[in-house]
Amino acid sequence: MDVYSVKIHPKEVFEAHLVARGADLIPTYPLSGPDSASGGLAGLPIALHNLGASREVFDHWVRRFRELGLTPVIRTPEEHDRAAAYSRGLTHLILPAHQRAAIERQVEFQAPACHGFGPQACGTPGRDPGRRRAR
Fold first, then answer.
1. Which of 28, 45, 91, 130 lies 20 to 30 Å from 82 when distance is taken between CA atoms?
2. 95 and 56 in one domain?
3. Looking at the structure, do residues 90 and 31 belong to the same domain, yes or no?
């Protein structure tokens, strides 16, 4: 079991060095932020990919995650990376536009709710997205 590796690059490394030597591997990746579990695991999604484990072992872990209250999402590393790029791309496109509009209208910027990621993940309120940081 490996956490944070339902991604293309780790998959390639694992295939070349571990699966090729007979390792049973199930990469996982939590699909929610670090603060999400403060109220429990119920309903939180977790991505899993079977990378060489037997069907029996893989199914065992899917069941175990469900018993813990998590929602297993079976996803290939390619699907995971594509979805992550899309959601992060939207965030980095929309949030600065929202900030700029608030600044231009001289209204207080209200960061959108970023479930489980805390305030820093949603940007810095009041910071002009067009201004670059001094180096």
1. 130
2. no
3. no
Residue 110: inside a domain, yes or no? yes
Q: Is the pTM of this model over 0.85?
A: no
pLDDT tens for each residue of the chain, 135 residues long: 656 566 778 888 888 888 888 888 898 888 877 778 888 888 999 989 998 899 999 999 999 999 999 999 998 888 877 777 766 676 667 777 777 777 888 777 665 555 444 444 444 444 333 433 333
- ∠ CA 22-27-33, nearest 5°, is 165
- Give the C-alpha separation, 31 to 106, whole Å: 35
Specify the number of domains making up the chain: 2
Structural domain of 11: 2-77
